[in-house]
Amino acid sequence: MTALSVDKCQKATGKVFCRDIEKAGSGFFIDDEGLFLTNNHVVSKEAVDDTGAIRIDYSRRIQVKMGTKMYDASLVINENSDKPVVYDYAVLRIDGAPTNHICVADVSQVAQGEPVLAIGYPSNFDVSIVTSGVISAIISRPSPRNALHTMRTFLTDTLATYGSSGGPLVRSSDGEVVGIVTMPHEIRSTIRDRLKKHLESSSANVTPPIRDLINFVITYLQEGFIYAISIEHVMNDDVFK
Amino acid sequence: MPIVMIGSYFFVQPGQKCFEISSNFTNYLELGIQKITPYYLEAKIESDEHRISGTLLDRNGKTLCSLKDNFIETSKGCSKEMTRKGYRIKDREGNRIFEIRVEDNICHLEGTIYSDSGETVAQDTDDKFVILKGPAIVGKGNGSIGLKID
After folding, report:
1. Considering only CB atoms, which residues of chain B are within 8 Å of chain A?
2. Is residue B77 part of a domain?
3. What are phi and psi of A138, to 5 degrees?
4. Which of A49, A148, A186, A232 is most worth mutating to test chain B (most B CB atoms within 10 A of its CB)?
């Protein structure tokens, strides 16, 4: 992939803000008409009620920063479909933004070991971060929101962390998007959050060596393999038919 | 004369993904006949998923919705509630009509399947999903059928 192609992918990638639900992530344009993809969990909050039903509340103010400019985004949703929730994607429309976009790959051609790049806005970075790796495995894993469904997922050693969610995983050979970067392994995230809470709530009682050890584990848990949901799940949405 | 069958395995082995039908385990269930009976339910294992498709009617025999691989295809006032282990289909009044729940690879069916005359075709009673009315097929594979109920 040439520097020019990387630059094109970076220009099509933006930082997503949902301040009303205190969420942020990344996303990218997939056409010149303003259609923009990100993860569903980036733009929504989930709750489970007493009956076990999953309730999804979407952000009422989604904004996307492209370069230095901020744009308002709206959800493109078929209210009868829960596919975006199951497969963890959201389709947004952004009007008036630059027209750079990333072409969608034929994922049936993606092979294990193929070099890929992850692009996004992790942590508090205001510039897009590009990391590289390979497709470590192509797996089928249960949807974190609904175990009934399985998702075709690319496992990659590309570096990503909080805020990378929703960004594109592009094939290095041609710059086409094969997947949407999602959170690191859920269990790892849960352990990390628990350790952080423990450290915050009992910092006075934790001796410095233990605090250093916990901080090391927290840092370690941010790294490792990440998942990218295959773009085919998004392309099967009614919006694209 | 009603026939009671329990503890049978149709085209599945213990531990494999399956559907539980009145304490029997099967890889396939068909209630009604597609495009012939107004109601229709097909439960199958495909792409390593438990998949339900068909047309569900309410207790008055009116079409409620059609499902395709667990997703609502057309809705006439029904709603779908997702749970961690499956989902519920509710009628216009919010009453649960049908629910599926997957635990340890076993898919449990709950609720009531109605015919167009409002008759009960199948329902869960005492935690068992019982087929009360044919036509139905339980189990399918290698060109053969496990059990056919006329």
Report:
1. 47-50, 70-72, 75, 80-88, 100, 102
2. yes
3. -115, 115
4. A148
Establish whether A233 is a catalytic residue.
Answer: no
Please count the residues of chain B: 150
The boundaries of the domain holding residue B96 are 15-140
Q: How many Cα atoms sit within 13 Å of A166 on the Cβ side? A: 33
Q: What angle do CA B14, B19, B23 make, to 5 degrees?
A: 75
Residue B5 located in a structural domain: no
Give the predicted TM-score (pTM) of the model: 0.84
Q: In this predicted model, what pLDDT tens digit does every residue of B18-55 receive, in sequence order? A: 999 999 999 999 999 999 999 999 999 998 899 999 99
- Mark whether A41 is an active-site residue: yes
Kind plus residue range of the DSSP H or E element containing A227: strand A226-230
- Chain-chain contact of A81 with B71 (C-beta, under 8 angstroms): yes
A80 in reach of chain B (CB within 8 A) = yes
Q: What is the distance between the alpha carbons of residues B30 and A114, in angstroms, rounded to a whole number? A: 42
Tokens of A81: 């479909």
Return the structure tokens found at A153.
């997922």
Is B149 inside a domain boundary? no
Please give the full DSSP string across A41-71, using - where no structure is assigned.
Answer: HHHEEEEE-TTSBEEEEE-S-EEEEETTEEE
Contacting residues of B for A84, CB less than 8 Å apart: none
Q: How many CB atoms lie within 10 A of CB B90?
A: 20
- Cα separation of A25 and A18, whole Å? 9
Number of structural domains found in chain B: 1
State pLDDT tens for residues B71-127. Answer: 998 888 889 999 999 999 998 899 999 999 999 999 999 999 999 999 999 999 888
**Alpha carbon distance A127, A68 (integer Å):** 9
Query: What is the ipTM metric for this complex?
Result: 0.84
Does some domain include residue B150? no
Residue for token pair 């470590």: A136
